[in-house]
Specification:
InterPro entries: Bact_OuterMem_StrucFunc (IPR050330), OmpA-like (IPR006665), OmpA-like_sf (IPR036737). This protein has about 250 residues and is of the alpha/beta class. The protein is built from seven helices and eight strands. The protein has two domains: about 120 residues, OmpA-like domain (60s Ribosomal Protein L30, Chain: A); about 120 residues, 60s Ribosomal Protein L30, Chain: A (2-Layer Sandwich), CATH 3.30.1330.
Length: about 250
């Protein structure tokens, strides 16, 4: 049985060569998206209205009965297909299929998923980065998570690969001269923020913006610690911890 599944997966990979992919995740035994995936999926839909969805493939982990997991993988694929359809994304020609159990990752959280294969539509050249577009359309009071902004463990130091996020934020502010923001730090995993990591990280972003010429009158920062988690603390897995451990900007004026 495992050999047959391996052949199926290899065939799927070959068939999907050259196509873009987007993956959403599910909690154990559920056919509804995790809270974080639901947010990310909505954002993905907003930016991919014109793309062609080719395949919607559902998967389950190997916990429980194989037959139940096979049905669950189908329901997950159908859930995603329904969401796409409700958002006016054409899926009539897409292959909607459940592949049952998969053991591709040792982390079972990563095996409970649906993979969307799509082909990008031709787009007009647009030099503005995604963050600039988000900020441009954001209303007063809106909050935007600075995705992929990572810090060294237990510190306010930004890791090298995250500097581009801050550069994009500088560009977004420069492109919107009326913009004023509040930088908000959040933590995960522990309700006792003894190291004040939230304020350290928010202040790091603030200092970076000021160092590149952004006027202080357009900026403020504060620490919410663990008081506004997306998921309850302690988190159940790495996805939830990463969602809680974040820096957001709130639009004060735009």
């Amino acid at each position: 049985m495992k050999k047959k599944l391996l052949v199926f997966f290899l065939f799927a990979i070959l068939q999907s060569y050259g196509q873009e992919q987007f993956t959403v995740y599910f909690d154990t035994g559920m056919d509804s998206l995790t809270k974080l995936s639901a947010v990310e999926f909505k954002s993905w839909i907003d930016w991919h209205k014109r793309n062609k969805v080719v395949k919607i493939h559902g998967y389950a982990d190997n916990v429980g009965k194989t037959g139940v997991n096979s049905d669950l993988s189908v329901r997950r694929a159908n859930t995603v297909a329904q969401i796409l359809k409700m958002n006016a994304i054409a899926i009539e020609e897409a292959e909607v299929k459940g592949w049952g159990e998969t053991e591709i990752s040792m982390d079972k959280d990563l095996n409970r998923k649906v993979v969307i294969y799509f082909e990008k539509a031709a787009e007009k050249p647009d030099k503005r980065k995604e963050l600039s577009r988000q900020v441009l359309s954001a209303k007063k009071g809106s909050r935007i998570v600075l995705k992929n902004l990572k810090f060294s463990m237990n510190s306010g130091k930004v890791v090298a690969g995250s500097s581009s996020v801050l550069k994009n934020l500088v560009e977004a502010i420069q492109n919107n001269p009326k913009l004023k923001i509040d930088i908000q730090g959040h933590i995960c995993c522990n309700t006792d923020d003894t190291k004040k990591l939230g304020i350290l990280r928010a202040k790091t972003v603030y200092n970076y913006l000021v160092s590149l010429g952004i006027d202080k009158s357009r900026l403020s920062y504060q620490n919410f610690g663990s008081t506004r988690p997306i998921y309850p603390i302690p988190e159940q897995n790495g996805f939830e911890a990463e969602a809680n451990r974040r820096v957001e900007i709130e639009i004060i004026e735009n």
